């Protein structure tokens, strides 16, 4: 789709263009739907200089892909193989060291576990070595498990995936395939590209840029080793419409696009309810509410300051997850709107938060002008 085709989305196009002019990104891939009916699916700008970004490029979602592992947990939880309040050390015995013995799956999913290891070196270490490093990590000083709140960027997602792998007897990659990609018929999703797929399809892997000294500089994240390493909470890739399909399933109370039952409605309700409420997050440096693995709309704590906002036009029930300086996916169950987008520029937290608010506001304005009955509130 060209810019001319976005005549019905002028505010979105303007916000995107302003980001390009400011040097925040080269391209944007976006998908918007209502009650499962696509309203917009497009890509704007460039994947790299001279090469247009397309809707088929596999974008790096970073933490926007964390809900994928949450859904895998939920299916295994539904079967009774794991319990939400079961200690992680029941499955990973070596995790029960240095004060981490009481950490449960609930604590992991609400970011109240207290083992925020930030430098794992997972791009060059083996999976067992990463797990061993996390297990040797001490509980953070003055941390009260289940009470103190601090977003775990990477560490808890390795532990969650490892526990689920041991509970099912599946490798982490097979776990992802059998519990998510195949049941939802989303073959383009990945948590680290397989080496075979990468060398056959590397041209469809979108590069990522970082804004350094005011200019976008190419990172090597679209190449091995990083591109093919598994990191369940930070190395997820796919197309915007794939992440949109995941949120549409959630909006449809666990029913997949083919009519099959992926999760029970009560499980969906549990995942997207507020479990962590009104707590200051030591990582995000803001009060942020969490469901089980999902960030629940927290604009009540400061609409202009809350990180990775879903936009002023969204309802309090909106849930989703953002990806570091790059992307976001969310669903508003009251309007039935699903929004997923990913850029290929990481401009720094401050610039990204401004960009995120600008894009979300633009989307709300365009939705309101096209569909006044939505009453998004963006016009105010």
TrEMBL record:
GO terms for molecular function: hydrolase activity. Coiled coil: none annotated. Keywords: Hydrolase. Its EC number is 3.1.1.-. The keyword Hydrolase applies. Residues 15-359 form the Beta-lactamase-related domain. This is Esterase EstB. The gene is estB_3.
